[in-house]
UniProtKB/TrEMBL annotation:
Family matches, as CDD domains: NAT_SF (cd04301)
Domain of life: Bacteria
Matching Pfam families: Acetyltransf_1 (PF00583)
The protein, known as: N-acetyltransferase domain-containing protein
Membrane-crossing segments per the record: none
Lineage: Bacteria, Bacillati, Actinomycetota, Actinomycetes, Micromonosporales
Organism from which the protein derives: Actinoplanes awajinensis subsp. mycoplanecinus
Amino acid sequence: MDDVSIRAASHEDVRKLIEDRYDRHHLLDHLHHRRGILLLALVGEGLAGHLFLRFAPPEEPELRDGLPGVPLLQHLRVMERHQRSGVARRLLAEAENRLRALGHGRVALGVHPDNHRAIRLYEDLSFTAWRDRHLATFREHVLEDGNTVRVQEPCLVLVKQLAPPSG
């Protein structure tokens, strides 16, 4: 997909472009607390997808202890009309390039163990399982009234070694 541009997002971009209540809530919260960088994939002025690069320590103690200082890729979403067109790969490649440039040697992400299509994509991109068992984590659901409810769910944590920047 050659007409995709990727750039870092601002709070205003999130308010303007992210329609999903769950994503908008969490992405604004992450940006407000300066936990990382949100990358947007755009086709023209329209949103094709997004990915959050989290530099702040993860909430899960097992990840903080087991992968100290390893950035996390979170909230990867590709809008339905752009799925299976390379947008996810472009966002992941841009995230990896930025992480390499900042001197990071590894990156991690979490995926629901039933999301076989995403797992296949990550494995194709050289991500491997961090450990054999799933991590117990949670998802916050944003209710109509703006309140949130935490629901526990399993998470498969994958890691990738990043090659040093070329050049």
